[in-house]
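agent> fetching stored inputs for the 2-acetamido-2-deoxy-beta-D-glucopyranose docking request
agent> found them:
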Amino acid sequence: MEVLWTAVALAVICYNAGEAHAYQNYTVGGASGWFFDAQKNASVTDYTKWASSQTFGLGDYLIFNTNGNHSVIQTYNMTTYKNCNFDDAEDSDTFVWTAVDPLKPNTRVRVSVPLTIKGANYFFSSAMDGIECVNGLKFEVKVGAGQGLPSSLMHPPPPPYLEPSPAPADDSAANIPRDATAPPGIDNNNSGSEITNSAVLSAFLLQFFFSLALLLPNLY
Ligand SMILES: *[C@@H]1O[C@H](CO)[C@@H](O)[C@H](O)[C@H]1NC(C)=O
Ligand SMILES: *[C@@H]1O[C@H](CO)[C@@H](O)[C@H](O)[C@H]1NC(C)=O
Ligand SMILES: *[C@@H]1O[C@H](CO)[C@@H](O)[C@H](O)[C@H]1NC(C)=O
Ligand SMILES: *[C@@H]1O[C@H](CO)[C@@H](O)[C@H](O)[C@H]1NC(C)=O
Ligand SMILES: *[C@@H]1O[C@H](CO)[C@@H](O)[C@H](O)[C@H]1NC(C)=O
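agent> prediction call returned; pasting tokens
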């Protein structure tokens, strides 16, 4: 019996070790959702504070629960964010996930935004000519490498295997602004994610069969 519990405990530990690195879905603002109180002329919660209490990685999702009165704009351009206005923004660095719909202010909207680019990601609502953003309906997240992008978020699909190029890899590419033609996610690397997952799985399976081997003599 003791062996059985040891096996179960080890299996649970292995399982949790894997879970700790799983991709996360973060509900923006928690139960408050993504809203603005027009009476108070303020966002319903402190989104900057909310964001600073979390750790974000590639492949995680931000879930915005809102309605037709608010928009969700994502940008990688700090100027666009600071201006609370994306009229002059480039299509390549700014995305409208949901726009204000004046005809359906009461319609509930749920938007899932995958984090596909490392570094600073900015989010704001452009509603009320930017006043919502100016008065708090905005936040910034620093996206870390996490366990890399899952293949489901690499679009278009990765190109076929090519012979390694003799030219040395240029690491500085990760720090300069994104190529204007690259869709989100394409300039992020997924190396590591497969390794992490299979390593965790192998460790789990190894532990499982090892525990089983210990267990069998007890049962028969
Ligand atoms: C996270 O959100 C995405 C997009 O809505 C969904 O496909 C995925 O199943 C969610 N994952 C979890 C763990 O809830
Ligand atoms: C709300 O705040 C904005 C910016 O701080 C200000 O320009 C505007 O007059 C305020 N509106 C109301 C109704 O108080
Ligand atoms: C950021 O956006 C502003 C306009 O909102 C634009 O003038 C500027 O060139 C952009 N910066 C970059 C690095 O794309
Ligand atoms: C939507 O915004 C308008 C003013 O812009 C306000 O009168 C109305 O109550 C809001 N509706 C909802 C459901 O937030
Ligand atoms: C992604 O990884 C490949 C090798 O797998 C490398 O050549 C490339 O420079 C990396 N790109 C970035 C942006 O790190």
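agent> quick read of the result: Residues 193-219 form the longest helix (27 residues).
agent> awaiting further instructions
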